[in-house]
Amino acid sequence: MSFWFPWRDHRPPFVYPVATPLRAVVFEPLFRKSVRAAFVDPAAPDAAAQVRRFGPAVLAGRLSTLLELAPRLETPPTHGIVVFTAEGGRCLSEVGRDALWDAYQAPAFEQVITAEGALAAWECEAHDGLHLAPGAVATRCAVEDALCACGKAGRRAIDPRIAPSFNPGTALPSLLVPTRIESEARPIAT
Ligand SMILES: [Zn+2]
In angstroms, what is the span from residue 62 Cα to ligand 1's centroid? Predict the structure, then answer.
């Protein structure tokens, strides 16, 4: 069986926040399909039934999607919630984290993704900042290079408010100003 809009091979794989891959239901159609990662359209009338049939250990989606779906889902995920944040946008707040805990009683792991689903930064099981992908930059927060408690090396953004991004050139506003003012000023023609 084939669909007119099939899963595309160039889509990035869904990245798990824990060492052992677990079955995950992903509410974003950005990721490569696998036996362990199923896409469920959160707008589908039978979305809750699809989740129940797959029996995921992890749910992954945007904060608003996860909170809207929670009352319809009969069984919470056994291991955790992955919350997608847009690169350059606002990071998951403590208020959002508390709301997720109230809804699912499962730990939340933030993942910063691009519009195409590429992973810019992620929260590990140590919950100590966001690990930065190669080429990702974090602004207005400390960046540490010390070994994380999860055992992984590499840069981490500590307590960021703004989600790390791959493209710092467009993340900051810029103002074009003339570099030189003519010494012989001329009146502007009208
Ligand atoms: Zn870590």
Answer: 21
Mean pLDDT confidence for 120-134: 92
Q: Give the tokens for residue 176.
A: 């074009």
Distance, CA of 99 to CA of 106 (rounded, Å): 11
What is the whole-number distance in angstroms between the Cα of residue 154 and the centre of ligand 1? 9
What is the Cα–Cα distance from 26 to 9, expressed in whole angstroms?
Answer: 17
Domain ranges of the chain: 24-122
pLDDT tens for each residue of 33-86: 888 889 999 999 999 999 999 999 999 999 999 999 999 998 889 889 999 999
Question: Which H, E and C letters describe 93-109, residue by residue?
Answer: CHHHHHHHHHHHCCCEE
Per-residue confidence at 93, pLDDT binned at 50, 70, 90? Answer: very high
Q: How far is the CA of 153 from the centre of ligand 1 (A)?
A: 8
